[in-house]
Amino acid sequence: MGVTQASVEINPPTILPPTPPSLSFEGFTITLEVEALGTPNPSPLEVYVVKAISYSGKNYLWCLGAGADHPPSRLIMSVRAERVVARFERGSFSGFSLSNLSSAQFSFIDVVGPYSISYWSQDGLSSFSPHIALLKVEDLRIVGYSHLTGTLTPSLGYSSVPPSGNLSLDFPSLTSPINELVWRAGEEGSGEFPTRLDLAYREEDSASLYAVAKVTDLPPSLHIKVDRHSTGGKNVTELTYHGSHTVGRLAFHEEILSPTGELSVTTMLIKELPLTLHLSTTGGEFYSYNATFPVNASLGIVGGMLEGVMGKISERFGRIGRVLRSLPRSVATLPEEKGWLEAESEGGLGEIFYASGELKYLTTSSSSYLSIYQANEDAYPTLSIRLKNVQKGELNFSSGFKVALTLLKRQKVDLAGIIPGGETLLMVDSAPGEMTILQDPEGERLFLGLSERVEEVHLLGRSEEVSIEMIIEGLMGEAEIINLKDTFWVSFGTHVENFQAYMTNSATFIPRFYPISNFLSIHQRGISGEISIKLQRVSFFRFVRGTAPIIEIRSEGAGDLLIELGEAINSLSLRGAFRPLPEYLNMTLPSNLTGVEIPLPSLYGGDFTGIAEGLLSLTGIADSLLNLTYNALDSMVERLGAIGQNMSLSWRVGSDQSTDLVLHVQRLGSAPFKPASWTHGLWIYQSGKGRESSLDMKIFLMGLPSEGSLSFSFEEETLVFDLDFEGYSPAMPWLLVRTLGFQDRDITIYMNDIKSGINMDVKAEITTNMSIGGRIVAHMEAHVSTLEGEPVDLGEVLARLRKLGEEPSLREIYMPALPADFSFRGRMERDIDVNYSSSQYLEFLYIKLSKSLKGRWSQIYGIFHDLPLSFSARIVSNPLVSLRHTLTLQGFPTFSLATSGRDIDLYINYDGKGLGQRGRYQLFVENAGDTETYYHGSMYVLKSEGIEYFTLEMENIPYIEGFTINSLIFSARDVKSLALDSSMLPGGLPVIYLKKLEVRNVKAVLDFSLKVRGKDMSPRGSFYVYRVSSSGFTRTLSLQSGPLEINLEGYRSATIIPAPIVMMWQEAVSGVVS
Questions:
Q1: Three-state SS for 877?
Q2: What's the CA gap between 427 and 459, in Å, rounded?
Q3: Which of the two residues, 820 and 64, has the higher pLDDT score?
């Protein structure tokens, strides 16, 4: 037997202005006391207080209670508020006094905290269970209920719970949320009573809800402080937790059954909750509460206070289910609401587990993971998270996407997703202490930061179109993926030990793996294909879109690289090897790949499925790369033999490395196939164009330079070749580049006596338009030095370009040696320009341009002998005719030569008929200084610093109708100046004058053909030669028959008159006489 007593304790109020005034009751306590009469009954104790109230137009049935396995001699429970404020209704204040409170009409406007709920037991308690229940009643029918049960039991190894406990809730008033919670168990000095707390909450309303929470080893004291504020239009809640002891285990489980029968489950588990924890999160809403509660005056002040306080509490209690039901949705919509969740603890959490969604938990065997499951597009996603030994964590969607973790121990972390359209699994083995993932709002940059080395990152992905597997071993520092307008690149802070990837869009292709350090395997059959990659010590990959797409790879050059490409439909294959892999590779791709996009995964969306979709979008990278390789291989076939080809390749290897390159490309089309030969260099054979073409290409280079680049481009008329080698020590001293049949052109470049340990930069450009008046340009320059920068000369060089077809042509340049610094530029259009400079004297230089027109070859070739360090030569054609002067000497080309020495020998043979010029010219100059020819009026003048020997031959040069010079040979020694002039006599025959002769041993031979009035006069061709000696005193006149041959040594001028003029005059005179 016992007695139960309930009492309410209040203090006298204070009247607060204004009018009508308010009453402030300092201290309001409701106490429930149970005391045994005699020896306590060992039966379990259950005590309940039931009260019915009407609040906000609804009827409620309240039930408060407590239980204990073994009732104590005395048990006291109390609820206390610091202050209660009531306000008089208007008109009810008249005649008010403290003695007639019960007759006043008033409403409670606030119950001010902090609020405390406490219990005290005279004897020890083996358990203690408080209860609270709220039933909603309409028409004597229960339409909903809420029930909360708490149970305190001793922890393992203890027999009783604390004999007393106090729970203090601090919120400014019942119209505001809780700001602070303080729990204290036992009295100071009474010892520790590790306790287990079990809470269960059940609610039946529009949906059924059941939630349980279990706390193992509730600390004797804990302090939770909550701060709520708004930032940037978002509701932010910050929670700070302090406990006197570590909480071993905190578990929460919730099940929600919707009216349609869908079951949603949320589970959370925290192990080893540390002494301090700070949590900040957005989402949810700040709940508001009614500010006033009118009380029936007949209840009196005490009854009114009790009614008011319980009404306020019932309103709060009724919202527990709403808060619990919104928990999974608040977490799941963090991405959509651009919110965040941050947590930091002192000492770290042993483990945290969270799962919500349908009754399907997608878990893995790893210690820590985030998994997402969505059965279909309309289904609610299941989210499952487990983290162990975590000290700090952040999940932020406010500006892009951010995940940051600080882990106390290395562990395996997985990120998994199964959503409509595919599934992905990202596994991080031995995750380091700090790990950060960032993505900007524009989705252009994805960043991974690591504080320590990660042993392995493994990605598995499968969509409806593509499957991908990727492995990264030895990742340290940071990794970054950037996708801008024209550039996609992947970079690592340091070299990763090993990178492997396999991707395919067809079930018929299987991964290809080779037992070597590095390989790239690409095989296609139409749009179906596979890519297999393995790279060691790689740090950078870049793909640049644009008019000339570029792929760039950086690594530490560990091991050999095998490359294998195949396209089955077009019968294209490529096999090659770098031994070892260069540190740097840069390759230009065909221009039609400009529009190929490589998507960047987006890790944020409407909900957490956006993360899974982002992981799945990695398969989009695989799809893009497969499309890229398909387009590249198909383009390679389409453009074989086409105009506008370009290719560039650059690399860098370690300073102590020597790289060899072997490459074989073969394509079997309908055009005739001929295998290329292996040589030290490049050999290509090609026939046909486009998809009909056949190709065989072989490259073999031993001892690639430590750093180098090769570029090659070919347009309609221009070939550009650029070679830049640094640290070049070839295993063979010669190099041959030969292409046969490429766009109906054969190209040969041969270099010999290549030294070891050199830097070499060679550029060549050839433009050939072999039509009449077309433009021909040959430009070549070279710079060769030792590694220390000292100049060094190489051996012979031959460059040859032969054009096949209906009008074949040939261009050749040969040098017996390549000086350390060399530049040659030749241009022929209407004129001919040659500019040359060299770091050493060169024995000779040979140049030849030739063309076949209607079965006849025309050509120009020149030999430059005893070349000085620099010279320039120019031949200017003169196609214009002036009627002010005689036509005899018009049309001669002018010539200029500027040289740094006076030892150059020059031989030029110019057959101009096929090249748009008149006749044939042959020029030989020996030991020449600066020389030029020019016109002075009608006079053709030659000036020179000195020419030891000079000869000029011209053939088949038509001047006027009926008069053609069949041949003109002019030679002289020690030439400094001479001039040619002419005039016309009646009948249109020319007279030639030789003037200003500063020469020695001058000879001239002239042969011509003449037709007068249709009658051939050539057989009777004779010449009168009138000469004036150097002194001017001797003058001679002689008649020569047949071809003219004169010696002008010792004469300063001469006049040449074709003899048919005199013969015609004699014939005319004789006719008159007769």
A1: coil
A2: 6
A3: 820
